[in-house]
Amino acid sequence: MKITWEFLVPRCCISEKPKTSKLVSKQSTFHRISVSDFSNSTISEDLSISLAGSNLHVFSVQELKVITQNFSSSNFLGEGGFGPVHKGFIDDKLRPGLKPQPVAVKFLDLDGTQGHREWLTEVIFLGQLRHPHLVKLIGYCCEEEHRLLVYEYMPRGSLENQLFRRYSASLPWSTRMKIALGAAKGLAFLHEAEKPVIYRDFKASNILLDSDYNAKLSDFGLAKDGPQGDDTHVSTRVMGTQGYAAPEYLMTGHLTAASDVYSFGVVLLELLTGRRSVDKTRPNREQNLADWARPQLKDARKLARVIDPRLEGLYSSEGVQKAAYVAYQCLSHRPKARPDMTTVVKTLETLKDYKDISTMTFVYIAPVLDQDKQSPQRELLNKTNTNTKSSHKKLTPNLPLHNDFHRA
Ligand SMILES: Nc1ncnc2c1ncn2[C@@H]1O[C@H](COP(=O)(O)OP(=O)(O)OP(=O)(O)O)[C@@H](O)[C@H]1O
Ligand SMILES: [Mg+2]
């Protein structure tokens, strides 16, 4: 009998010894258990046993209440379609052997837009996939109707918050490229895995940042195993986020790794332009970022008009052009014309050599010195050099311009 999600989920926390060792033996040969393995599994196999090799902790609601101070508002981090997220702290006082660390606890809102299915998909994928650019799932809770997820805490929150929040210094160009590269590596890892994964919900709010702006992908609730055998795509219900989803996927429901590549192109555009993928406050033709920006990416003069003004010209023009060309390719309406993520990673790696160089002219006016010392007032022009690499002086765009600098 094929077991449905409804069968599986209420049983996921029942501690029973497995009657068959199908899933366990798969674990022991290090093959990733997929969501479909669960629907074929026998009813006695529960989630915690199936994922026994993955080192996930199974928490109780009471324990999670303790670590989040009863989900207090002072620990509130944010809320998406799944439900509220709170900060907490775990250590071996809670459970012997737990590494002391801050965590983020996500609580499934039963009235929300997501449900058991996304929760279980997340536990199955993230419970088994480990990579420096995927957020680490530490554990979960499945008690009566409650479903929670416990992740490593990411101190800088999401890229969406960092890029679009109003009253903060803008992210420098080099940081933006570091984030793009990290996220690209996460996606490449999923696509190149022995059993490839299509992420399906690549967007700025699902890219989390650690204190050094290392990017990690979170939210695997919509992830899918890639096509198997001779299949070229996976057919699914169209899900994802408006403004990020690939046009062919929206039209046909045919999902491929190239759909993720398109979404990556949209995020890269967000990093380049500082604009959201969809912005209803803008004039009609500018509301969809990809549609508006893509035609302008190949022409250097037009490109200058779409680059985020908050960067204040502090970037290498050559670096920007290369990044824009990657975005242009990723956003092709022909999925086959898009690069794969490994190629994207290789190209973005080269951008590390291009530092934040001003593309504008700065005039340095030295303070007038003592007449006695006979030094004339000097002017130093720091002109743009579009071919400039790291040998040039790095300007730190986040710092306010020193009084002695005047933009020409
Ligand atoms: N591991 C984490 N560490 C720190 N903050 C987190 C963590 N996970 C989520 N958050 C914060 O919680 C907020 C809500 O995240 P969540 O993933 O639930 O929703 P979302 O990505 O904003 O929306 P969506 O439901 O469309 O994915 C995010 O803005 C993020 O800042
Ligand atoms: Mg999210």
From TrEMBL:
<dbReference type="InterPro" id="IPR011009">
    <property type="entry name" value="Kinase-like_dom_sf"/>
</dbReference>
<dbReference type="InterPro" id="IPR001245">
    <property type="entry name" value="Ser-Thr/Tyr_kinase_cat_dom"/>
</dbReference>
<keyword id="KW-0472">Membrane</keyword>
<keyword id="KW-1003">Cell membrane</keyword>
<dbReference type="InterPro" id="IPR008271">
    <property type="entry name" value="Ser/Thr_kinase_AS"/>
</dbReference>
<dbReference type="InterPro" id="IPR000719">
    <property type="entry name" value="Prot_kinase_dom"/>
</dbReference>
<dbReference type="Pfam" id="PF07714">
    <property type="entry name" value="PK_Tyr_Ser-Thr"/>
</dbReference>
<feature type="domain" description="Protein kinase">
    <location>
        <begin position="71"/>
        <end position="351"/>
    </location>
</feature>
<feature type="region of interest" description="Disordered">
    <location>
        <begin position="383"/>
        <end position="408"/>
    </location>
</feature>
<protein>
    <submittedName>
        <fullName>Serine/threonine-protein kinase RIPK-like</fullName>
    </submittedName>
</protein>
<dbReference type="InterPro" id="IPR050823">
    <property type="entry name" value="Plant_Ser_Thr_Prot_Kinase"/>
</dbReference>
